[in-house]
């Protein structure tokens, strides 16, 4: 399979028991189709080889060891070994071992100047690859290097398939070109596709006729090409119709000449065609005999589930079955089914693989939590093993007195520099929480607000725990205000303490790591100006209310004046004058001008009354004198 398809995938040659696929990130996954389990997952070294862009299965026959006369006749024969040949983004070829679960060999020699677009195996120890540099390379598994190459341009090749009978290599681009692998010459060309070939497959009939099946991008047809090693610009022998674009093809020929073809389309439907090899015609288009569509068993709505790949079962007891996988690239379910050719559409109701994997993961976590136990850590030097020797021959250890044991059990807080207690540090708790991913313990440690405790904890934190701590702080900073305050305090001390460790990382990796924290900080700073304006207005209103409350006038009488009765009016006048002066002294400075004017008028009236009294008194005295005379 090649890079040009939606998936880089393929079934194993041992009846499809294994299925290998490469996702968009170049990660290889190997599935067991019988048990529906992920057997292996491999992430290549991006610096050495780069992501995987093409794959093919390689079945290597095991070496038969020489038996001696003394060897038993019942000795088991070594089984054949399965490998996966991977084409990389950097133009090289590596061999992945299923037994060891890693890259076993890197083929040396010449390589492509660009990514490998497709790879094929001839079952005789040779690999053929084509790349973006428009070259075809031949690799020897025995010599572990590239042995020859030739040009296949000028069009960029997308897919190749090896034809064992004619010893030719079919290269698909916009045209289909057939090259002789021995002479490296172009022997045959086919035209008919308007776009680049998207998927390719080959089939050999019972009469040794070889056919190549291709489908192109932006086309809804499958073309049959008969290989005869002669001719140019030849047309297709037969054309099959589809409802959508296809990215996976598989075929099978029975002994009676019946040909079965399956195509997996872009919308996740599998089309199955039944043909007779001897009656292929280019004049009439062939429609699918039946189609398979997988849907979910939801209670509310019925949603389609996409099929990813299909393969015809080669077992004689199950020759009428078809093996297919459905789901997504990370969660795939496989099933074998016998299609009902009497119906045009076979609807298969199955559970969504996402729900199955989620349920299975939940059960595994519950089981692990139930069986989670703490194993005691025992020093091997203290363990005393039972033996058959008498007690006198055993090594008798001196018992420590109970008083000494109790003294050792006492916890003494040791002081560090500047008078800080070592017990304030929570480094061990933080390391244990990050290692076990215990969220409750992580929240308990990160809820610390004491800056000295945070500094002591981060000073002794190893560098391998810095990245997990940054991730936890990024999650915490998205929560409530109290959590944000604590997270910012931890992040500030962490950036000051482990600055060198953070700056030593790649700029892009550091940006991705601190991206959430920077985004939250930028969002909160965006509202800072509005918040400050609102806070200033509220403070101004509060200050004005306090000022008005402090400056109110007293409503109750503060000064009470009591007048005493005197015999002489002059004393009364003087006392009233004194009372008026005292009232004027104790009165506040804010007395209005009207009250002052009223007091002046009252004083004038008193003076006039006094003058009238004096005049009357003098008048009475003169009358008395006249009477006496």
From TrEMBL:
One cellular component term from this protein's GO annotations in UniProt: nucleolus
GO biological process, one term: maturation of SSU-rRNA from tricistronic rRNA transcript (SSU-rRNA, 5.8S rRNA, LSU-rRNA)
Domain of life: Eukaryota
UniProt cross-references to Gene3D superfamilies, sorted A to Z: YVTN repeat-like/Quinoprotein amine dehydrogenase (2.130.10.10)
Keyword Translocase attached: no
Keywords annotated in UniProt: Nucleus
Residues annotated as domain Small-subunit processome Utp12: 438-542
Localisation per UniProt entry: Nucleus
UniProt-listed Pfam families: Utp12, WD40
Comp. bias intervals (Polar residues): 571-595
Regions of compositional bias (Acidic residues) in chain numbering: 597-629
Chain residue ranges for the region called Disordered: 563-629
Family (UniProt): Belongs to the UTP5 family.
Name under which the protein is recorded: WD repeat-containing protein 43
Organism the protein comes from: Drosophila pseudoobscura pseudoobscura (Fruit fly)
Gene behind the chain: LOC4805044
């Amino acid at each position: 399979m090649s890079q040009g398809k939606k998936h880089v995938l393929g079934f194993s040659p041992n009846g499809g028991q294994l299925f290998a696929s490469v996702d968009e990130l170049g990660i290889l996954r190997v599935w067991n189709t019988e048990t529906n389990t992920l057997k292996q997952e491999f992430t290549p070294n991006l610096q050495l080889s780069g992501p995987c862009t093409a794959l093919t299965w390689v079945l290597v026959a095991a070496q038969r060891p020489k038996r001696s006369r003394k060897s038993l006749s019942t000795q088991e024969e070594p089984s054949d070994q399965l490998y996966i040949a991977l084409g990389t983004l950097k133009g090289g070829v590596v061999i992945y071992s299923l037994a060891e679960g890693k890259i076993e060999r890197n083929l040396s020699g010449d390589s492509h100047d660009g990514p490998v677009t497709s790879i094929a195996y001839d079952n005789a120890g040779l690999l053929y690859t084509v790349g973006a540099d428009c070259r075809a390379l031949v690799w020897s598994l025995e010599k572990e290097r590239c042995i020859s190459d030739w040009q296949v341009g000028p069009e960029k090749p997308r897919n190749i398939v090896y034809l064992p009978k004619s010893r030719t290599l079919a290269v698909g681009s916009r045209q289909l070109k057939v090259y002789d692998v021995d002479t490296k010459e172009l022997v045959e060309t086919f035209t008919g596709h308007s776009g680049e070939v998207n998927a390719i497959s080959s089939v050999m009939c019972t009469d040794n006729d070889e056919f190549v099946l291709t489908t192109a991008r932006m086309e809804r047809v499958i073309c049959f090409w008969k290989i005869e090693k002669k001719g140019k610009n030849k047309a297709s022998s037969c054309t099959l119709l589809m409802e959508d674009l296809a990215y996976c093809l598989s075929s099978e020929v029975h002994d009676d000449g019946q040909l079965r073809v399956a195509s997996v389309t872009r919308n996740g439907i599998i089309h199955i065609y039944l043909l007779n090899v001897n009656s292929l015609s280019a004049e009439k288009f062939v429609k699918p005999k039946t189609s398979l569509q997988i849907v979910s068993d939801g209670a509310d709505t019925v949603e389609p589930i996409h099929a990813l790949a299909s393969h015809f079962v080669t077992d004689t007891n199950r020759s009428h079955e078809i093996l297919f996988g459905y789901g997504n690239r990370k969660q795939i379910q496989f099933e074998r089914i016998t299609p009902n050719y009497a119906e045009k559409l076979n609807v298969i109701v199955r559970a969504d693989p996402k729900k199955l994997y989620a349920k299975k993961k939940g059960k595994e976590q519950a089981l692990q939590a139930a069986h989670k136990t703490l194993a005691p850590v025992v020093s091997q030097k203290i363990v005393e093993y039972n033996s058959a020797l008498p007690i006198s021959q055993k090594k008798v250890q001196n018992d420590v007195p109970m008083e000494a044991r109790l003294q050792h059990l006492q916890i003494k807080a040791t002081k560090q520099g500047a008078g800080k207690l070592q017990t304030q540090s929570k480094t061990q708790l933080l390391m244990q929480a990050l290692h076990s991913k215990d969220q409750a313990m992580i929240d308990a440690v990160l809820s610390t607000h004491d800056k000295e405790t945070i500094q002591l904890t981060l000073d002794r934190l190893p560098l391998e725990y810095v990245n997990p701590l940054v991730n936890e702080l990024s999650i915490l900073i998205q929560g409530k205000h109290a959590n944000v305050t604590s997270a910012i305090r931890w992040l500030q001390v962490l950036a000051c303490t482990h600055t060198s460790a953070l700056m030593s990382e790649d700029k892009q990796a550091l940006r991705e790591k601190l991206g959430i924290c920077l985004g939250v900080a930028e969002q909160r700073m965006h509202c800072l100006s509005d918040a400050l304006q609102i806070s200033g207005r509220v403070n101004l209103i509060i200050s004005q209310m306090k000022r008005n409350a402090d400056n109110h006038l007293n409503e109750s009488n503060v000064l009470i004046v009591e007048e005493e009765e005197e015999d002489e009016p002059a004393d009364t006048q003087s006392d009233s004058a004194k009372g008026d002066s005292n009232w004027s002294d104790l009165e506040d400075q804010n007395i209005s001008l009207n009250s002052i004017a009223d007091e002046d008028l009252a004083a004038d009236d008193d003076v006039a009354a006094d003058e009238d009294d004096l005049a009357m008194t003098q008048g009475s005295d003169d009358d008395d004198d006249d009477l006496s005379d």
